[in-house]
Specification:
Radius of gyration: 18 Å
CATH class: Mainly Beta
CATH architecture: Roll
Oligomer: single chain
CATH superfamily: SspB-like
Shape: globular
Structural class: alpha+beta
Largest sheet: 4 strands, antiparallel
Length: 156
């Protein structure tokens, strides 16, 4: 897409990541109310992810963490969060950029979000030949990104 096109898809993604940020901020400031708990899935290969080496070895591409009863030192910044979790009885600090998060789920209220891999992240993780192919945008690919609003319109 050209630079003159409004990227609504990115705007929506950013707004939804703000839901994750706000939820984490609430948990950091007030704890988790009632039965709320979070399943957070993220790409371990994303830039800015900081894990203990044993966790990288066990989860070379993606990892899901649970914030429920036992988590410590939750700190939320504009672009990332930090938390300490216990793995095999050993506390391990994690730093996770919000852009690395691929899914967020609170099963207590059946609320979930799924995020797409960003263009930059996909390019960084792809093979050079795949990068060349992904840079060629076709009308069919652009059409696949169009969301029709007919289902939301009132029938007169």
């Amino acid at each position: 897409m050209s630079d003159s096109t409004l990227r609504y898809d990115r705007m929506v993604e950013e707004a939804l990541r703000d839901v994750v940020r706000s939820s984490l901020n609430h948990a950091a400031e007030h704890g988790l109310p009632g039965e709320h708990h979070f399943y957070i899935t993220f790409r371990t290969t994303a830039p800015g992810v900081d894990l203990h080496e044993s966790l990288y070895q066990k989860y070379p591409e993606e990892m899901t963490i649970v914030l429920q009863h036992q988590f410590w030192d939750l700190k939320v910044q504009d672009d990332r969060f930090q938390v300490t979790l216990s793995f095999g009885g050993v506390p391990r600090p994690l730093t996770i950029p919000l852009d690395a998060v691929t899914a967020f789920f609170d099963p207590s209220v059946q609320f979930g979000l799924k995020f797409e891999v960003s263009d930059q992240e996909a390019a960084a993780q792809s093979a050079p030949a795949a990068n060349a192919a992904s840079n060629e945008s076709s009308a069919e690919e652009d059409a696949a990104n169009v969301i029709t609003l007919d289902a939301f319109r009132k029938n007169s």
